[in-house]
Amino acid sequence: MTTTEPTADPTVSPPTGARRDTSLVGRAVRAAHIARHVDPEFDTRAADHRRTAHRRALAHDFADAHGLDAIDVIVTDDPDRCYGTWRGFLITITDNGQYFTFLPLPGTDGYYLILGPCPGCDRPVPLADASDPPALGRYLDAIADDTEPPHPAEFNHDPAHAARCPATRHRRGHTA
Ligand SMILES: [Zn+2]
User: Fold this and answer.
1) How far is the CA of 25 from the centre of ligand 1 (A)?
2) Which of 100, 123, 125, 140 has the fewest CB atoms within 10 Å, i.e. is most exposed?
3) Distance 107 CA to ligand 1 centre (A)
4) SS3 content of the chain, % helix, strand, coil (to 5)
5) If you measure from the C-alpha of residue 84 to the centroid of ligand 1, how many angstroms do you get, rounded to a whole number?
6) Which residue in 88, 81, 98 sits closest to 18, CA to CA?
7) Closest CA to 127 of 143, 151, 159
8) Mean pLDDT, consecutive 10-residue segments, the chain of 176 residues?
9) DSSP of 28-46, one letter per residue?
């Protein structure tokens, strides 16, 4: 797996100046702001019709799962995770000025993990299942109660952790 140094923290607040405008131009400008924030290489990534189709399908599936409008679901390339030669995707929602970013696991049917700061290294890693409202609500309740939600298996193996993150139990040889 190709491991790259994380270049953005999708769990921090959205950039100021991102307009909430429902016109075509307003939506496009706001979506591009969010995409740049999550994926710093957004402006230089080449178009790829296969990836466009995947992004659109993910946006609709995630919107269906959480009762959102697909137009408000921003799907970008994942700057931190590749699966073989296939770069992953991230899904980002803004809600009352707060970012929520989700990792759709390739090869699964609607399994979404929410990214948040690792308790060991503070990098954005998958912290909990957020595939449907109850799962997301469980995570949000845990955060509100200042407790740790049950981490998914993917937590331990996520490439966004710092090289010697103390929170992971099964770190593989880190070559990056
Ligand atoms: Zn970590």
Assistant:
1) 38
2) 140
3) 24
4) 30, 25, 45
5) 22
6) 98
7) 151
8) 48 55 89 94 94 96 96 95 94 91 92 95 96 96 90 93 86 45
9) HHHHHHHHHHH-TTGGGPP
Q: Tell me, what DSSP letter sits at residue 126?
A: E
Per the CB < 8 A criterion, the answer to whether 145 and 168 are in contact is: no
- Using the mean position of ligand 1's atoms as its centre, give its distance from the Cα of residue 157 in Å: 10
Residue keyed to tokens 């924030």: 37
Pairing mode, strands 124-129 and 112-117: antiparallel
What's the CA-to-centroid distance between 163 and ligand 1, angstroms? Answer: 8
> How many whole angstroms separate alpha carbon 132 and alpha carbon 118?
22
**Tokens found for residue 12:** 């921090």
